[in-house]
């Protein structure tokens, strides 16, 4: 297999605002789940008695949590977090059975145990191996996969339940192991998973149909986000040609369920085109992970353009500024987050799924959201042979035996990047230029717009490269004659001021409601969009002090509420006829605005 590789925490470190964002995560909810959450602290994985809640996938929460906690610990060089991660991994590995089985169940339960957990624990252990370099972890994963292969081959196990719809997640560790060993049984294992797994291209007519208020595997939003990478990660090892199947599937999902910021609606199954239907947080981080893999296996920059939109908008929007609470569901037009105390407006999620909470509805997002920022930080650079690619222009430092690259920038809040490159050995340096760029300047001189800049460095050469993008804020047409505002990778929303109402539940659980205190029922009435830069503070995605804002004008309209609700705006306004004079509107990044109106009508 020949594809792009991402660096590990041993070579790549975050700087600037990205470091601050990761530190906030470490100090917030994600960084202390092993201390306060019984589902992690007392999990069966480490000898406790806690499993996932009834109806969930018991066993996924500890691997989910570690999948983000491990790279976060190593990116921050946090000795305490590294020690805690090691303690969990040591305990999990100490309980591995002689034949390689590792999941926490009795031997007579194996046949009915969801294989999704086998694939997930291997995926997490590969992350730990890449960070720690501990060879025993490599051998443990080998034994897990070999045991799983033997049991699938014999018919003792089958790919069932969640594993049937997430079979391709196993290819992360299978590909890794095949590149290291080349053993043919790994190819056979990949083929078995594909043969017994779900064929997503055969389901597209269901996705095009009218969304139903019915839970089903085939339209589950997290499955949708995960499956985009299926062909990319599986085609080589199973011996098939790559057809860019993901593009066709993406276009169908985006056409029938897309949002302004590049998510698909799913609350919790596909929900159609609507700014008042939600997108599950797990789908955000899994979509990011799919895009990372799609680029690694195809080298196609389009997946990185789409990643830009998700990571800089949807990822910060789903968490409060200190990352102490999260939303299970985020909405594009979210003018309140209040309990309904009745039938919720979501297709298959219960009341309160959109509240900011410690743990609300299902614990999957509580444990899984942590992989988003750390894995994104690790996808800033990739390499292939003697070529290094800068994929995302975020503040970072790459230090390998062959080169040292420091990138100083406040991107995406500003569009100026300064690279300091020191080449130990000769190498080629490629810098991706996002598709939104209108004008490109290198070292102060305008150059032809391109999708990448290429530099060839000789051994011992040092150089500074300054790059600047220019692009203008713009209105983006949305369905139902609504409009969103975009500048670069950032989308902007009309922020709604709020009061926070905290409700204590059984410790350690709590939830918060955001009650609106400012008007939200506006339409745009001016084509002028004036961009203003501010200081990037210790909280990069701050509501009170956003790093960038856009000024425009709007007029109040009779927007109205969704039928039966007083805290959910209507899907489209009742009337677009304005009342009152034009007012100045200050828009802030979508990810900064916890209450927001993102899709608005344009009336003049």
Helix vs. strand class: alpha+beta
Largest sheet: 8 strands, antiparallel
Shape from CA axes?
globular
Please work out how many helical segments DSSP would assign.
18
Helix content class: 25-40%
Taking pLDDT < 50 over at least 5 consecutive residues as the criterion, the unreliable ranges are none
β content, as a range?
15-25%
Number of strands: 26
Radius of gyration: 24 Å
Cα separation of the termini? 55 Å
On the 0 to 100 scale, the average pLDDT is 96
How does this model look, in words?
The protein is globular. 33% of the residues lie in helices and 22% in strands. Strands 17, 18, 19, 22, 23, 24, 25 and 26 form an eight-stranded antiparallel β-sheet that branches. Strands 2-9-10-11-16-13-14 form a seven-stranded antiparallel β-sheet. It has a five-stranded mixed β-sheet with strand order 1-7-8-12-15, with no helix packed on it. The longest helix is centred in the first third of the chain and has 20 residues, at 135-154. It has 604 residues and is of the alpha+beta class.
Features:
604 residues, 18 helices, 33% helix, globular
Outline of the structure:
By secondary structure, the protein is an alpha+beta fold.
